[in-house]
Amino acid sequence: MANQSDSRASRHQQNGPKKRSVGSILLKIFVTLFIIAGIVLIAGAGLFAFYAKDAPALSEEELDATVSSKLYAANGEIFQDIGSERREKISPTDVPQQLEDAIVSIEDRRFYNHIGVDPIRIAGSAFSNMTSQDLQGGSTLTQQLIKLSYFSTSEEDQTLKRKAQEAWLAVKLERQHSKQEILTYYINKVYMSNGFYGMQTASQAFYGKSLNELSLAETALIAGMPNAPNYYDPYVNQEEAQERRDTVLYTMLDNNKITQQEYEEAENTPVDDGLQELEQEDDDYKYYDNYTKEVIKEVEDKTGKDVYRDGLNIYTNLDEDAQKRLYDIVNSDEYVDYPDDKMQVASTLIDPNTGEVKAQIGARNVEEGTILGNNLAVNTSRDFGSTVKPVVDYGPAFEFLKYPTAKTIVDEPYSYEGSDTQINNWDNSFMGSMTLRKALVLSRNIPAAKLFADVGADSIQEFLGNLNIHYESLNQSNAISSNSDTQDGTKYGISSLKMAAAYSAFANGGTYYEPQYVDKIVYQDGSEEVDAFEVEGEKAMEDTTAYMVTDILKDVVTDGTGTNAAIPGLYQAVKTGTSNYTDDELEELEGNVSSPSPDSNFVGYTKNYSLAVWTGYNDKMTPVTSESSHVASDVYRELMEYVSSSVENEDWTMPDGLVRIGKELYLKGQDDTPSTSSSQAPRRRSAPSSSTTPSSQAPSSTSEEEPSTEEEEESSEPSSETSDEDSSSEEESSSEEEESSEPSSEPEEEPSSSSEEEPPSEDENPDTGNDDSSNDDSEEDTGGDNEDGGSEDESPPDSEEESSE
């Protein structure tokens, strides 16, 4: 019985489950993977078909056309059509064999073997991208042509849907056209830098000959450019252009299209060999060149789109009339008396209520044919001098320390904190105790540096940051200078663009708007890009701060250093600024020049426009002198008068947080605000005296009251108070023609010029800037021995000089 049980158990074990073989397991895995792959393939094919059905239809028109982008001015008129006419085409039978070999070798070696898409090329590029840092594309020449004709070249638009449509159209194109026709479309269509489309166009422009006349080296350069035309531009980036040309030559050698000897001879040819000077066919282009350059940059920065390849309708904020007038002011002798042809001008005009850039110019007397030339208007490497004082010193003092405009400060011998470097004024003299108003109107350097120390670098950095002005390291010398050892492109330092935008915040009551060249983009399919260009204004300062600065700068044009920019009847606020040479640089200057400065600037604004002007020379060691320092204010005056003639001329309204006592402004609720009679209303400043107004409307104020003058302001200040004391307030008398103030009980300090400090007699008629007691010359503070590149500001011109201008 026991033996029978063992036998059954043995048979059970023999008949039990058998181990599966390895082959069986692998077979099942293979079948499973095959099924999964089939599902993925079917799903992929379905998705491909789903996307492909919406692909645009092939058309001869699209394949042949250039993808030009149109730039529209603010009035809706086209002012630039990039790539529309600058093209010469060739036929399939005219394609040189050398050019064909070069293009196929560098772009698509299997061009004659695929059907529009190349799975082998795609797999190869994918493997290369995984094993190296250099990314390679898998697109064929046919796909590149489709992309140029129908789609954006932006990387962010490389979606699965677009790739599927591109591949489908490439296959269809190969069925409808020969390889030679496809290659010819490509040769005629590609962008070649400098506004040229098509390789034949570039050949004629670069070398003055047809494609079939080019040398091997020239052909290789032309064939290699479409990959990155601006980067490989031989007129701009010769090193990069030569490297790309040599790469093309190597691929031709590797593809057995040229011999080793031909390769070496072409490689040893200078990249600029045979290049001729470019000619600019569109004469109007010169008016907009700098503006167009910034439009292209803004589009690329904010959307990633390529203006030259994506066929965009770009609606800009350009005021065509203002732009052309600015160009004429800068490039003719009709408006400004320039000292020579080499002096440069950079200027930016902004709408302070939106941040829209209305006009801009970045160079003067630019060489004919220059395209997208150097734009000094956005350059931050030059010094804006004393124009920084409102944004670096006075604005922060009003904002953070709540100083009134009547606060006194002493203009006296003073050195930068922690150093022995003495700061000087243009006349190497000191005017003693004065109000902050007078110190800024006369642009004295020492009060500005003292205010910087009072406020502190951290608070000033915060204030500047709100205006998008940055320094890697902010020093006390920046109280009177925009010098920055580091630019980092245009991140640090100040340009005419940055300064016009910063002063806009004073003009509009304290809001900063990022400068905008572009309003919107309309794509080829009719969709619009608006959000990328929308700007939300951000609070930069209190409205009281903006008004206090504006109120003082209004005096600069009547009683201070900016009288040359006076425009009859126009409400405006302005500031002058020049830079200075170090002692070592002064020794290097040739000749005996009067008041030399590397930079001369003028910045000002109305309620409608903010305008910044820089003047100087490309060679910093060529100085602006006293004979040419008028140019910056001349350019400002001519353009501001022109643009202001067609808009309403409005004065600024004092915010509720301020009280005016006499001429000075105080913040309500501050301990240093003098008490006033409840019956005394704040005095409204009248318009600059004139018999005419540049505006289409007269000034909104009809008051007959005469504007306050420098002398009136002086009569309200205690002359011997220290910088920590406030001045006594000026009280209005019942008569509008007379004003008096309580004199300080302490004796007045002796100023350097008695004519500047003595109050006017009662029978003296306060004027608007043609006053005989103003300073004698129109120079600015040169900073004396200051080696930190400080600013220097003009003393007010006397009436004789003013009348002669």
Brief summary of the model shown:
This protein has 805 residues and is of the alpha+beta class. The chain has 25 helices and 20 strands.
The low-confidence parts are: 677-684, 690-805
Q: Could you give a short account of the major beta sheet?
A: 5 strands, mixed
Mean pLDDT: 81
Task: Please give the order of strands in the largest beta sheet.
Answer: 2-1-3-11-12
- Between the first and last Cα atoms, what is the distance in angstroms? 137 Å
Radius of gyration (CA) equals 35 Å
Q: Output the structural class.
A: alpha+beta
Q: Helical stretch count?
A: 25
Fraction in helix: 25-40%
What portion of residues belong to β-strands?
5-15%
Task: Report the count of strand segments.
Answer: 20
Shape: elongated
Could you please describe the fold and organization of this structure?
By secondary structure, the chain is of the alpha+beta class. Helix content is about 35%, strand content about 10%. It has 25 helices and 20 strands. The strands form seven sheets. The protein has a five-stranded mixed sheet, covered by helices on one side. α4 packs across α11 (about 240-255) and α10 (about 215-225) crosses α11 (about 240-255). It is elongated.
